[in-house]
């Protein structure tokens, strides 16, 4: 089986037919599936979509049970958590929907962890980290674009001279460089390449 565009989060099952791993969708399995929008809804109360998955939460006054349902809890109502709570050895603790969130100083609301600034994010050398609420993603560095090359996705240099996205002067030559470009004034002209006289 050959899939010309590849299957990012899935397996190639036939000519250009991908079978996506749970939590992903799209022709090349490169899109996150929003499980919270499915019918029937996977959660009884609150559902939070995460990249490739989802998490269930209960309204204040209810406790998340191991099977994903919400059970009434008087102790939970007293604590008044933002995303519901769980009983840990008889002690009520508030929950946060993902590892990229942490309990705030009040122990009830969840605040974002900036993985990009704390160094928790893992991005390859040619990608930059972009923080999101509860998570992060790796984006190609400026001057690069995501392309499917020889069986996998990679950040490839954008040739600004070919794509005509350079700002070189009319009397200058555009020279492509790795991740950027340079402008050089043509013979008989002088200047920065952006301005030639």
UniProtKB/TrEMBL annotation:
It holds the Pfam family EGF_CA. One of its GO terms (biological process) is cell differentiation. Keywords: Calcium, Cell adhesion, Developmental protein, Differentiation, Disulfide bond, EGF-like domain, Extracellular matrix, Repeat, Secreted, Signal. Gene3D superfamilies: Laminin. It comes from the Eukaryota. GO terms for molecular function: calcium ion binding. It is found in: Secreted, Extracellular space, Extracellular matrix. Residues 32-71, 112-150, 157-195 form the EGF-like domain. Belongs to the nephronectin family. This is EGFL6 protein. It comes from Tricholaema leucomelas. The lineage of its organism: Eukaryota, Metazoa, Chordata, Craniata, Vertebrata.
């Amino acid at each position: 089986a050959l899939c010309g565009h590849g299957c990012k989060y899935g397996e190639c099952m036939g000519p250009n037919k991908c079978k996506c791993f749970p939590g992903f969708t799209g022709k090349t399995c490169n899109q996150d599936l929003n499980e919270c929008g499915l019918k029937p809804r996977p959660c009884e109360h609150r559902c939070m979509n995460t990249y490739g998955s989802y998490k269930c939460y209960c309204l204040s006054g209810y406790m998340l049970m191991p099977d994903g349902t919400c059970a009434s809890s008087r102790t939970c109502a007293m604590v008044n958590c933002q995303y519901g709570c769980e009983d840990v050895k008889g002690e009520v603790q508030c929950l946060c929907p993902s590892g990229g969130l942490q309990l705030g100083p009040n122990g009830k609301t969840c605040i974002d962890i900036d993985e990009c600034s704390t160094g928790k994010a893992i991005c390859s050398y040619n990608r930059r980290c972009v923080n999101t609420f509860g998570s992060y993603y790796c984006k190609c560095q400026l001057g690069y674009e995501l392309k499917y090359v020889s069986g996998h996705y990679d950040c490839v240099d954008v040739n600004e001279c070919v794509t005509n996205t350079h700002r070189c002067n009319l009397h200058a030559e555009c020279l492509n460089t790795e991740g950027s470009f340079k402008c050089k004034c043509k013979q008989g002209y002088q200047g920065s390449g952006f301005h030639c006289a």
